[in-house]
């Protein structure tokens, strides 16, 4: 379970202090599916970075499963991220010079799995997203939808408890968007917590809760019905 | 998949900067290996030549300027043969053998030849006075066997061909001649043939094996026969001394100068001193070349690595977001640098050895063989330089903010 307690994040830009998160409180129970929406610059990405253990807030606490995330060292947070948190990016962020299988193997390699374990797990995950026939293809040899599915397979590789998705359907057409959201929904049904940043109302509609961020302040919106 | 697999695959994604860096490193190591290789083998050749020369000290008339060790008797100046006797009586420690020589011009069937008069070791043994000094059975000097590294006097070797390697001979009749290989070919003469020389008939005792020196074009006869027939009288052009290698560089020269103040004493060490100095300079220069070229290589690698970090910011951020530690990112870049260093070092060793093997015989007349030690030196140096040059870029990569993976 995530708990944000009075989290404030400020930046200095051109001599001016910008407040990205302003004394925000948020609780995300296990197996929740949250959409974070809001206008550009409202602090959505900052919130995702804070939740991912990649950006220490200026003030406040971020608790994950009862542990203060930013009391951990950078290396400990990195290890925790590899173990518990998976990421989905808008532009997929696949390594262009590695094949689909190798991309999925990366988090497994980083968590110390053997080459055999990596290969087996990668094949399993690619099969799950319907890409068992594209394992040796590079990202440039695949469609956008296929690339995002490879990224989903990579996200799932270490069986993370939490998935943080940054505009996961931002670069996809409507049909592929539907497909990707179905997968995320499926991952949620597996028991994972999904926190998704999106501009798109249709995508947000897949979530159980929607949090609106306005000027760095979180506002709970009425619980939407899952698609 | 392992880290090294990622490093290897990434290297081939950007081959041009990789090859540029590799070339710079390779050139540095090539310069080191080629120069060191040639230097070492030149030194070995000089050492081998010194050993094979046998004689390592020359006694010359004072006005002679030595240009060529093998041509030390070609200057036309003479000194009394009596100096040989004086040296023998002096019993100088370190003197193993003496070889006086007199060179005259002669003709054989209208073909001009250089006739060198030499004194066989039997002549020393025949002199009663010298026998009384206990020199029988040993070389001329009084301290045979004193040398930690004995000069190769060839004492006890009765083969006339020993003249080619030791510059001395045990027996030589007063009407015997020994021919150098080239001269024998020119005259069409072989062992046992008779030759007319200085108005007298001589028998060819043997034809020497090729030595690669001016001796190949010479004819050798008994010193006293040459003195008599040429009318030169009891004189010699040079006295070659086979001395202990250590003594030839020590007190012996002082002692010889004291014994024969009217002469000029030259050691083979002096003759090769300049060459050795040049070799030392070359050796030091090779490190200067290596340093300069590796500095260029290091700059190139650092530049390529910085560009690589900038180019891969998002990739690095993604890796960090999905669990790559700073240490992993650092290793990714240093590993790449290490590969460039190792490959560049190995390639430099191969190219440098080939360059040395090709240029060595052509420019310096030496045969060069691979020196495995230089492989280790080349690879080690190149790797250290490449890794050191990549430390800052790697640190910069490891310090990247993983948040840059998100769209803001």
TrEMBL record, chain A:
Domain ABC transporter: 2-226
Keywords: ATP-binding, Nucleotide-binding, Transport
Highest rank taxon of the organism: Bacteria
SMART domains: AAA (SM00382)
Example of a GO MF term: ATP binding
Entry keyword annotation includes GTP-binding: no
InterPro entries reported for this sequence: AAA+_ATPase, ABC_transporter-like_ATP-bd, ABC_transporter-like_CS, ABC_transpr_LolD-like, MacB-like_ATP-bd, P-loop_NTPase
One Pfam family, short name: ABC_tran
Protein name: ABC transporter ATP-binding protein
Organism whose genome encodes this protein: Aporhodopirellula aestuarii
Lineage, opening ranks: Bacteria, Pseudomonadati, Planctomycetota, Planctomycetia, Pirellulales
TrEMBL record, chain B:
A Pfam match: FtsX
Domain ABC3 transporter permease C-terminal residues, every copy: 288-402
Positions of the MacB-like periplasmic core domain: 20-237
Transmembrane helix recorded as keyword: yes
Highest rank taxon of the organism: Bacteria
Subcellular localization(s) per the UniProt record: Cell membrane
Membrane protein topology class: Multi-pass membrane protein
Any coiled-coil regions, as ranges: none
Family assignment from sequence similarity: Belongs to the ABC-4 integral membrane protein family.
Official protein name in the record: FtsX-like permease family protein
């Amino acid at each position: 379970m995530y708990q944000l307690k009075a989290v404030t994040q400020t930046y200095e830009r051109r001599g001016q202090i910008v407040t990205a998160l302003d004394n925000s409180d948020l609780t995300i129970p296990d197996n929740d599916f949250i959409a974070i929406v809001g206008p550009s610059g409202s602090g959505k990405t900052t919130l995702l970075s804070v939740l991912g253990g990649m950006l220490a807030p200026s003030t406040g606490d971020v608790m994950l499963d009862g542990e203060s995330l930013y009391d951990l060292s950078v290396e400990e947070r990195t290890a925790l991220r590899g173990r518990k948190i998976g990421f989905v990016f808008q532009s997929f962020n696949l390594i262009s010079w590695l094949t689909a299988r190798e991309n999925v193997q990366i988090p497994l390699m980083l968590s110390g799995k053997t080459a055999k374990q990596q290969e087996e797990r990668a094949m399993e995950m690619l099969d799950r997203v319907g890409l068992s026939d594209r394992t040796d293809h590079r990202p440039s040899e695949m469609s956008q939808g296929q690339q995002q599915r490879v990224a989903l397979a990579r996200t799932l590789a270490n069986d993370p408890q939490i998935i943080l998705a940054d505009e996961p359907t931002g670069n996809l057409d409507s049909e592929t968007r539907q497909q990707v959201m179905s997968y995320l929904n499926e991952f949620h049904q597996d028991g994972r917590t999904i926190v998704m940043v999106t501009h798109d109302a249709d995508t947000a509609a897949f979530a159980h809760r929607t949090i609106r961020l306005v000027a760095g302040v979180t506002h709970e919106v009425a619980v939407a019905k899952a698609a | 998949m392992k880290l090294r697999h990622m490093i290897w695959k990434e290297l081939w994604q950007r081959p041009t900067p990789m090859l540029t860096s590799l070339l710079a490193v390779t050139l540095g190591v090539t310069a080191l290996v080629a120069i060191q290789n040639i230097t070492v083998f030149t030194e070995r050749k000089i050492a081998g030549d010194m050993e094979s020369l046998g004689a390592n000290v020359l006694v010359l008339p004072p006005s002679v300027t030595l240009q060529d060790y093998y041509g030390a008797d070609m200057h036309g100046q003479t000194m009394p043969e009596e100096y040989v006797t004086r040296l023998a009586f002096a019993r100088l420690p370190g003197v193993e053998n003496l070889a006086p020589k007199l060179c005259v011009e002669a003709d054989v069937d209208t073909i001009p030849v250089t006739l060198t008069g030499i004194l066989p070791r039997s002549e020393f043994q025949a002199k009663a006075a010298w026998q009384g000094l206990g020199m029988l059975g040993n070389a001329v000097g009084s301290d045979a066997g004193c040398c930690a590294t004995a000069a190769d006097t060839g004492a006890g070797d009765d083969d006339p061909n020993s003249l080619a390697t030791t510059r001395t001979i045990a027996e030589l009749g007063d009407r015997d001649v020994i021919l150098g290989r080239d001269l024998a070919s020119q005259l069409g003469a072989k062992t046992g043939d008779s030759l007319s020389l200085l108005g007298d008939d001589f028998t060819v005792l043997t034809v020497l094996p090729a030595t690669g020196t001016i001796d190949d074009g010479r004819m050798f006869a008994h010193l006293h026969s040459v003195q008599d027939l040429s009318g030169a009288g009891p004189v010699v052009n040079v006295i070659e001394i086979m001395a202990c290698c250590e003594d030839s560089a020590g007190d012996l020269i002082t002692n010889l100068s004291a014994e024969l103040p009217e002469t000029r004493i030259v050691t083979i060490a002096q003759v090769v001193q300049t060459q050795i100095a040049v070799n030392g300079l070359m050796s030091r220069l090779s490190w200067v070349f290596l340093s300069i070229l590796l500095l260029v290589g290091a700059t190139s690698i650092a530049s390529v690595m910085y560009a690589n970090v900038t180019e891969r910011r998002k990739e690095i951020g993604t890796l960090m977001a999905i669990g790559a530690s700073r240490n992993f990112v650092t290793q990714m870049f240093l590993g790449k640098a290490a590969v460039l260093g190792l490959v560049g070092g190995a390639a430099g060793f191969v190219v440098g050895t080939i360059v040395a093997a090709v240029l060595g015989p052509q420019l310096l007349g030496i045969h060069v063989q691979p020196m495995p030690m230089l492989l280790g030196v080349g690879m080690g140096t190149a790797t250290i330089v490449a890794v050191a040059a990549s430390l800052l870029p790697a640190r910069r990569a490891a310090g990247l903010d993983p948040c840059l993976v998100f769209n803001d």
